[in-house]
User: Which sequence fits this backbone?
């Protein structure tokens, strides 16, 4: 059997574990392995990979077959003994919705269990949209997305990625409105998760920062212990999503990743957050001038700070600004890391552009819903 998590000091019993929870945990391990193996896997392989007994694997796979989550998919070539039956994830059995709510744009993406796109819609949004209007727009698009679900397919929930600051645990936004601004009126302290769930008849809804969901979209299927990934998002704002040791790092108030609000110029221009000389306000000023090279240098300075602080070993760049000039940002950020890390040969940090492109936030938002099904730490 797999080794259970440690219990309280002096106790051999796992803390907070019951038989039903352990059963679900083990089933999720099996589903996760099959998700990462499109060709499928045999029961013997699953037992070896999970450390579970063949009897336990037999019970788990029988239940998953009965629930329609997996299917038998032919047999492996015989190596002398009885051919082994392959099991494969039934990707169309369930779906999840990923929503990217940007300041001026809305994207709704429907994905199946394998992450394949079943529906995609992007539309412009007025920056002065009210929260209630935004919820109605999202609800309408989710209705259209799910209208064509295969017969018997389940909708597991909706994940929403939007800019911070926000309280992920409560699903409440903290969009402070700068003095004199009107376009954000009504958004501060808005309970987006609960309002959207109510409009969707109680469908599970998860709300998180856009940078966190995009980081999930870039995460490897099998996290490397000790690894650190930073996803840097530059669009209408600048933020970061942090994957540390394979799990999202949100912080005590779930507000980690305010990368753009590190002060890099003490007497610099005022920022919407109330401070002066923030990295974000400086980058956005360069973007308004059309100088992507200068913006890339600034982002690179911030990334180098992050690498030295957290020993990040992989950086992914995304967001509309980056995607409009990817080579410029790759070169600019890489150059700053190499110039500011004392020993780049000992501490190499590869930089890449988001493989999911403009769909990174929406795809990762769907992963907020799907991840727990496969024991992915979201």
Assistant:
């Amino acid at each position: 059997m797999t080794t259970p998590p440690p219990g309280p000091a002096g106790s051999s019993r796992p803390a907070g574990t019951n038989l039903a929870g352990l059963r679900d945990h083990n089933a999720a391990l099996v589903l996760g392995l099959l998700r990462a193996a499109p060709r499928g896997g045999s029961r013997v392989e699953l037992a070896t990979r999970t450390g579970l007994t063949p009897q336990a694997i037999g019970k788990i796979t029988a239940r998953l077959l009965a629930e329609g989550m997996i299917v038998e998919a032919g047999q492996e070539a015989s190596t002398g003994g009885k051919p082994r039956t392959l099991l494969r994830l039934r990707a169309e059995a369930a779906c999840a919705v990923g929503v990217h709510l940007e300041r001026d744009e809305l994207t709704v993406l429907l994905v199946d269990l394998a992450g394949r796109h079943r529906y995609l819609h992007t539309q412009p949004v007025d920056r002065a949209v009210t929260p209630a209007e935004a919820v109605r727009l999202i609800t309408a698009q989710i209705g259209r997305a799910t209208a064509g679900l295969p017969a018997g397919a389940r909708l597991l929930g909706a994940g929403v990625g939007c800019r911070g600051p926000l309280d992920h645990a409560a699903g409440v936004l903290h969009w402070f409105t700068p003095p004199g601004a009107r376009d954000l009126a009504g958004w501060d302290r808005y309970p987006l998760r609960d309002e959207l769930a109510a409009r969707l008849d109680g469908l599970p809804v998860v709300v998180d920062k856009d940078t966190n969901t995009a980081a999930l979209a870039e995460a490897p299927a099998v996290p490397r212990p000790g690894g650190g990934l930073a996803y840097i998002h530059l669009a209408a704002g600048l933020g970061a999503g942090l994957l540390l040791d394979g799990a999202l790092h949100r912080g005590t108030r779930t507000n980690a990743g305010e990368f753009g609000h590190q002060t890099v110029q003490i007497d610099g221009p005022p920022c919407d957050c109330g401070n002066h000389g923030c990295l974000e306000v400086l980058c956005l000023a360069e973007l308004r001038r059309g100088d992507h090279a200068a913006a890339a240098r600034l982002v690179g300075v911030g990334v180098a700070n992050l690498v030295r602080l957290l020993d990040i070993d992989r950086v992914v760049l995304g967001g509309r600004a980056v995607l409009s000039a990817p080579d410029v940002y790759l070169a600019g950020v890489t150059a700053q890391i190499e110039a500011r890390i004392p020993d780049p040969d000992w501490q190499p940090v590869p930089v890449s552009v988001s493989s999911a492109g403009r769909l990174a936030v929406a795809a990762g938002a769907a992963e907020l819903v799907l991840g727990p099904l496969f024991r992915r730490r979201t």
